[in-house]
Amino acid sequence: MTTWSEFTAEAPHISDLFLRRHTATSNLCMLGTLRSDGFPRISPIEPRVFEGMLVIAGMPGTTKFRDLARDPRFCLHTATVDTQVSDGDAKLFGTVVDVADKTVHARFAQKLFDDIGFDIRGQEFDHFYTADLTSASTVEVAGDHLNITIWKPGQGERVVQKH
After folding, report:
1. How far apart are CA 19 and CA 11, in angstroms?
2. Burial letters for 14-31: b for 16+ Cβ neighbours within 10 Å, e otherwise?
3. Which residues contact 81 (CB under 8 A, 6 or more apart)?
4. What does pTM read for this prediction?
5. CATH code of 119's domain
6. Rounded to whole angstroms, how far apart are CA atoms 33 and 29?
7. How far, in Å, CA of 43 to CA of 48, rounded?
8. 102-137, pLDDT tens digit by residue?
9. Which residues span the domain enclosing 120?
10. Which of 154, 163, 12, 3 is nearest to 90 (CA)?
């Protein structure tokens, strides 16, 4: 399993760009999952970095979480509003792990309340998904070409230029 902490150590450029874009869009990302019929689904989500984990949590009972319960694979894409991608964008790929530890849930709920005032303290989580990252990439415009930075566990980052 590649946790968020391990990912940031192995892919500092990609993780930095992801966090910059994540922050610039008020934490909004697009989550790609697979529906029960095998077709892709795209859903908005506000993932959070918490205790060295990338948490993919949200409103219980949603179709995106039913998708992940059935098939844990996902793609997480930073929200892009600029068609020129002048600030770059990032994609993270992996599977989710459902963390059952209620003490982790309670600490997360408290942190969410402390950070943004959203109060889910004392509520049960249907699922508490964290990301096990399997690959990631960024796209950045660099003059007359694109720089595509790619990461896979244990391989570090590499840059491919597209003209």
Report:
1. 12
2. bbebbeebbeebeeebbb
3. 25
4. 0.93
5. 2.30.110.10
6. 13
7. 16
8. 999 999 999 999 999 999 999 988 889 999 999 999
9. 4-138
10. 12
